Amino acid sequence: MKRVFITGASSGIGKxxxxxxAKRKCILGLxxxxxxxxxxxxxxxxxxxxxxxxxxxxxxxxxxxxxxxEQFKKDAGGIDCVIANAGIGGDDGLYSxxxxxxxxxxxxxxxxxxxxxxxxxxxxKEQKIGTLVCISSVASFIPxxxxxxxxxxxxxxxxxxxxWRPTLQRYNIKTVSxxxxxVDTPIVKETARRFPMKSVTDAAEKFVKVIDxxxxxxxxxxxxxxxxWIARFVPEKLYNWLIKKIFHKPxx
Length: 252
Ligand SMILES: NC(=O)c1ccc[n+]([C@@H]2O[C@H](COP(=O)([O-])OP(=O)(O)OC[C@H]3O[C@@H](n4cnc5c(N)ncnc54)[C@H](OP(=O)(O)O)[C@@H]3O)[C@@H](O)[C@H]2O)c1
Known about the structure:
The protein has nine helices and seven strands; from the N terminus they run E-H-E-H-E-H-E-H-H-E-H-E-H-E-H-H.
């Protein structure tokens, strides 16, 4: 039975991934800060055929991540796949006079990912097999106004994976960066909800297949791929003019 550890399993993509792996009879490590919600997700996973373990975890806390990783390896009898999914959105608080908002985003979305993954790597190296997954974003290719913290955090984790990939391949450790566009979850707020969104269940089913194949970088859904390609060649002045037209009000 495959052993999969997931952060941010209390909601959205993490919860849908937990359901998708439960259907495949996996042993699951479900982690997030809201333990009461995780307990419900664990019940749902059990009903679907999975074997879940629940861990309260704030990915900003390095020690907490190390302890929970050790505990999951004991509970599950090892590790096959770690999905660093936990993340927060939100704007930078550009005119707030404080770096608190942007720093919390950077801390959760970058250090939260390294805190999650690093404790599992020595075991994967030793056993010469494993899969590391990060949930980056289309925003790592197309910067959105007011969201410099979010976009840069998603570039950073994709770049960390690009950097690790050739080295970890020597130990048969796969590194999969998933880059979703808008998926219907609570992270997509107010004005951003006017954009077309994919269902979270469909997205999770697709992600599980991509993770199984060990694909390196996966942009979902496919129409974002040509858009990303085109965005590379749009002159900066035109890009800035267009983006101001589209986002004439801050998206939250
Ligand atoms: N939905 C989209 O359109 C979209 C697009 C591109 C990328 N993404 C990425 O996909 C990932 C999942 O987001 P989502 O859409 O599923 O949003 P979501 O429904 O808001 O879920 C976010 C999850 O992260 C957890 N989390 C947040 N801060 C945490 C912390 N400090 N420690 C531990 N867990 C924490 C939350 O759990 P607790 O609050 O219980 O801790 C929650 O389970 C994120 O990395 C997001 O950036 C989403």
